[in-house]
Specification:
Elements (H helix, E strand, L loop, with lengths): L4 E4 L9 H14 L7 H7 L4 H8 L5 H18 L10 H9 L5 E6 L3 H11 L7 E4 L10 H10 L6 E5 L2 H9 L3 E5 L6 H5 L5 E3 L2 H9 L1
Parallel strand pairs: 1-2, 1-4, 2-3, 4-5, 5-6
Helix pairs in contact: 1-4, 5-10
Length: about 220
């Protein structure tokens, strides 16, 4: 077994939720009268906690306007936007394959809120796939490594027996900060060149490449 603990990012790594995030953020920005957010700018901040994402997307935004944008983003995401959010093809089967191994532990480290992650767990029936999870609103946002440190402590697994899997430099950098191996996937939001700067142990270009390598 290559790693006792595999920690996955969610958006852009396991779930193809990027189009929905972009659509909801653009709609929320229009509601808050903060115009001109491009697709590429929104994709760049996917993975950060929502307050951190808004601050980076909208420099100089007032606290009241930022709060309105946050509220409208949550409204669109939950209630009004119908953009589908499927898992990438093969994710369910490949996670099930990993879970068949004795002593294999799986976790999630995401920029989502706890409420948002629990909602998607319930909607997809995927909550039982994972032994633990951390969200940006219950610890510190990526790229700070606190959520990884907390997962290691909760599951009593040393850092050299764990790996972080993600599609952004925020995932790679939080792992590098504590000396954790990291695997980059190029089918998400950040470019291969940007991911390579964090010196990942492996780079996967599709789901099968990723899970075949993780399976060892």
């Amino acid at each position: 077994m290559r790693y006792e603990l595999i920690i996955f990012d969610w958006d852009g790594t396991l779930m193809n939720s990027v189009p929905k995030i972009v659509a909801c953020m653009q709609a929320a920005a229009a509601d808050a009268e903060w115009h001109g957010l491009s697709v590429s700018a929104i994709e760049d901040i996917i993975g950060l906690g929502l307050p951190e994402a808004i601050a980076r997307l909208c420099p100089g935004i007032s606290p009241a306007q930022a709060e309105l944008l946050r509220q409208r983003y949550a409204h669109h995401f939950v209630h009004s936007d119908a953009t589908p959010m499927p898992f990438f093809d093969g994710v369910a089967a490949q996670v099930a394959r990993l879970r068949q191994r004795e002593q294999q532990r799986l976790a999630v480290a995401t920029g989502k809120s706890r409420r948002g992650l629990d909602r998607v767990f319930a909607e997809t029936g995927s909550g039982g796939w994972f032994d633990a999870s951390r969200t940006a609103d219950e610890t510190r946002s990526k790229p700070h490594p606190q959520m990884l440190s907390e997962l290691l402590e909760e599951l009593a697994i040393p850092v050299d027996r764990a790996v972080m899997v993600g599609d952004t430099e925020y995932d790679m950098e939080m792992a590098r900060a504590i000396g954790m191996d990291r695997v980059a996937v190029t089918y998400g939001v950040h470019t291969p060149t940007r991911l390579a700067a964090s010196q990942p142990r492996w780079v996967a270009h599709n789901i099968n490449e990723l899970f075949d390598w993780l399976y060892g």
